[in-house]
Every structure is written in C-alpha cells, then in structure tokens.
Amino acid sequence: MVRSISSSDDAAPIDPSRVAGVRARYRRARADVERSDDEPGEVEPVVESSRILYPKAPLSSRCRASLIDSLIAGVGYVPTFVWFAVTDETTVSTVVLRLLFFAGVAWALYYTFAKDGHAAGQSIGKRQVGLMVVKLATNQPCSRIESGTRTIVMVVLATIPVFGFLIEPIAALAANDGRRLGDRLAGTQVIEVGDYELGE
Q1: How distant, in Å, are the alpha carbons of 37, 113, 119, 186 from that of 159?
Q2: What is each CA distance from 88 to 4, 67, 76, 91, in whole angstroms?
Q3: What angle (nearest 5°) sits at the alpha carbon of residue 159, between those of residues 158 and 163?
Q4: Residue 48 domain-assigned?
Q5: In which band, very low, low, confident or very high, does the pLDDT at 8 lie, cut at 50, 70 and 90?
Q6: Residue 48, helix vs strand vs coil
Q7: How would you classify residue 50: left for phi > 0, otherwise alpha for psi between -120 and 50, otherwise beta?
Q8: Which one, 60, 121, 161, 166, has least CB within 10 Å?
C-alpha cells in the first residue's frame, strides 16, 4: 500500500546525498541505454559544456602527416643545395647562395608555424591523411594564430636538453583526446575530417 507523506508523519527527513546518488545512477543507466542503440564500434562526437568532445585522432595518421609536413618545410632549402653544388665560389655566387638560404629559412618558418591555419584547418600533410585541427570553443577550423600558438609550444619545449623534443609527442600519446600541450594552450584538437562533419 502506498502511503502519502504529510506533516504529521514522524519519519526521518530524506538525506539529500541519497537523492543525488539515485539521480546519478539514473543518468548512468539512461546513458547506457542510449549507447546501446548506437551501431557497434561507431564513435560520434559528444556535446558537453557547450563544446564538442571529439574522438582521439589515430597516432599513425598524425605521424604520417608530420613527416609529410617536415619534408614540405624542408623543400625551401633545395635551391640552396643545388646552387652550392653547381656554382663556383665567387662573390656573386656567395651572395645568391645566402639569399637562397635565407629564403629557405623564411619558407620553413612560415610553413611550420602557419601550416594548420590554411583552408579547413589542414596542413598539406594533414589533408593527405584526412586530419584537421579544430578550435574547440567555436567548432571552427584552426586559424593561423592558433596554428602558431600550438607550434611555438613545441619549439620552446624542444630546446630543453636531451628529452625536450619528446614532451609533446608523449603528451599527445597519453591524453585521452590526443591533445598535446600546444593544443591545450591554443584550445585546439587534431581530429579526423569525418568526425568534424558529424560534429557540425
């Protein structure tokens, strides 16, 4: 029999922590039911606190993109080596050699710092492997400023003797969302392009 509770009842008041516990168990059970309706193995972005939480991008794809981008950044030095190999050491050739070298440095710096701020938040390497960088707060592709921010953190950390160059890769590997320290400072995340389409 169900009995209504009135002010005349002498029962002890309900503990608020017990109510909170019941509500938490209900939310977890409801989330489990909703997940069971999804297709097996399908991972979709989750909206939380007014921003989208994306799945972690594959580390293998990020490594391939990084290798491609490193080669592209180094292309600027090719004219320097060619000129050095085919010319004699004269005043004119030395001046040209220096100009070519500084042009190569300028290209490498520009591409390294701005590469992820190109169209759709993709460097050439990331475009080739289907990755992009997204600003989490706005769910928009990474800008050149954010690209430079995430890169400068890696450059500064790499100056630490012996192990500095390993800090950012380890941070990306250890984080559940794959965000390295530069990503956290810039508010960005490397994701797969297909996940961004789902999250729009």
Answers
A1: 49, 16, 30, 20
A2: 102, 34, 21, 9
A3: 60
A4: no
A5: very low
A6: strand
A7: left
A8: 161
Task: With respect to residue 181, please indicate whether it lies within any of the assigned structural domains.
Answer: yes
Estimate to the nearest angstrom the gap between the alpha carbon of 121 and the chain centroid.
10
pLDDT band of residue 169 (cuts 50, 70, 90) is very high
In a domain, residue 173? The reply is yes
Instruction: Give the Cα separation of 153 and 185 in Å (integer).
Output: 8
Whole-Å CA distances, 11 to 1, 2, 17, 18: 17, 15, 17, 16
Helices 59-74 and 91-114 sit at what angle, rounded to 10 degrees?
Answer: 160
Q: How many domains does the chain have?
A: 1
Decide if 132 contacts 190 (C-beta within 8 A): yes
Q: Which domain holds residue 121?
A: 53-199
Q: How many CB atoms lie within 10 A of CB 5?
A: 8
Angle at 43 between CA 41 and CA 46, to 5 degrees: 150
Length of the chain: 200
| CA–CA distances in Å: residue 174 to residues 49, 146, 196 | 23, 22, 22
- Is residue 18 a part of any domain in this protein? no
